[in-house]
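ok trying this again, last paste got cut off
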Amino acid sequence: MKKSSLRNLGVMAVVLCLVTTCLLGGTLAKYTSTITGTGTGTVAKWNFKANNSDGTTTVNIDLADTLTGGTNIAAKRMAPGTDGQFDIRINATGSEVGIDYTIAFSDLSNIPTGLKFYSDAGFSTEITDLATYNGFNGSIALADVNTEVTKTIYWQWAMDGNESDDVAKGTAGGADGTKIGFNVTITGTQADPTATPAS
């Protein structure tokens, strides 16, 4: 009787072990998949130049080089009765964003009283204060970045200006001539990508 009980106990233990293994095996078996990926993004290209400079070189404008006429005056010299024009050429070719730009003049020095700046070739719309004038500022929509924008500034030194000032500038010239000066800063800024471009 003892052997039979032991054998029954052993058989029950084996059966329980098999049942437990099946149950555990059934609850642990499952499908598993692992998927990996990468994230990328391409940065929009930026290109902004003014008069072929990207900021690593200085834009140099010599008003005497921009004379539109005058044969009775020494080369590279300005005097009452002369006029001219110069361009600020903005190029954003290849840029992949729209661009807002500003053209600012500052530190005007030795400007003769008779020398005036204008926004038109007919010298009818005077820029009374070049340092605060913002009429050359603008925007380039993304669709137009491959088209160069040119802003032209006209100047005229009238012969009927302030004669005493004109003479003072002329007699103070010396060997190198009196230098008329100003600084120009051309700044390009990425346009708001969510803004509707101006038409």
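PB: full thing came through this time. The two ends are 106 Å apart (CA to CA).
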